[in-house]
Amino acid sequence: MRIMLADGQFIGTDRFISGVLRSDLLPIPVTLEFQTLLTPEIDAQLQEKSVIRIGDNYLELIIVKRVVDTAGFLKDDKLLSIGAYIAVLNGCERLIEPARKATYLEGTTIGAALRASGNKLKVKEDVPLYHYFCAVGATPSYEIARKCGEEAAVIYCSDEGKIIVKRLSQILNQDPALELDDTAVKWIKNQTHLNHVIPSYQTVNADGSTIEGELKVGAKTAFYPNLDSRRLKNLSTVLVTRGTVMRTYNPDFMAGDVVKVKDKKYVILTAAHRFDTGVLGGPTVSASKFWLAEVVSL
Measuring CA to CA, which residue among 204, 251, 194 is closest to residue 20? Predict the structure, then answer.
């Protein structure tokens, strides 16, 4: 895992301790957590709001949290300073801050809602949105995630750092980035759990006289106000984790990529890439883990 600082220098493996690069199908699609031994020069470039780059495409991330610990770490009789950091995709950081002003859009798109909430990245693909509202003090990433649920859509990042918004009905319509045998997957099967966590939704129609949605025997039911039947059905169209895969370290695979197992396609819901150097005496780790999900309509 090579992290480039603002001056173009990389954090060397003699100082880098560990890191986890994670991509998800979320409004904040890429995050990085890492720890490193500090020098005054490195510390000056790893402050909050500092921009770093990672990967072959030099994906830009911005540091949103910094903790420095100087207590009790010794190496070769020298006191060490260790910095721990959390960074998110540069341009998305405003989405995790309480909104400074209210935003209301009608007849819009999810990409437009992202931009109105502070996203600065280019949106490569988009999905229409009936309306969007984020109150003052609300967290935009939560509000946008709710709207993605209403439209049965997800947000992820391309390897070029562009935002892609895609409906779940279309996300598997791409060539697989990886093909695996089913023995390489640790499968997860728990229908009872699904019945508890994925509700069938009900709502009152616009005329106030009828109820949209249906009750399903043995499944959880929830009420969601002010929706039409289309968006109500979308709420029960979700990605369900079907298995996990452990691979050698390969950060080229990201959330949103399609994996083919036998003759069936799955989408990577989360991709986590971990790299530990063992510079403080611990074991070295170099691995990637993928959570494979299937589109399910209950």
Answer: 251
DSSP for residue 9: P
State the Cα angle at 122 between 239 and 169, rounded to 5°: 25
**Residue 210 pLDDT grade (very low, low, confident, very high; cuts 50, 70, 90):** low
- Residues 233-270, buried b or exposed e (16+ Cβ, 10 A)? bbbbbbbbebbbbeeeeebebbbbbbbebeeebbbbbb
More confident residue, 276 or 194: 276
* Strand ranges inside 126-276, DSSP E: 128-134, 153-157, 163-167, 178-180, 186-187, 200-204, 211-213, 221-223, 237-248, 258-261, 264-276
Give the pLDDT band of residue 209 (cuts 50, 70, 90).
low
Classify 70 as helix, strand or coil: coil
Query: How many angstroms separate the CA atoms of 34 and 86, rounded?
Result: 7
Count other C-beta atoms under 10 Å from residue 14's C-beta.
Answer: 8
Closest listed residue to residue 147, CA positions, set 135, 126, 165, 131: 131
Residues in contact with 61: Cβ distance below 8 Å, sequence separation at least 6, in sequence order: 30, 32, 51, 52, 53, 54, 87, 88, 89, 90
CA dihedral 32, 33, 37, 39 (to 10 degrees): 50
The Cα 27–Cα 148 span in angstroms is 9
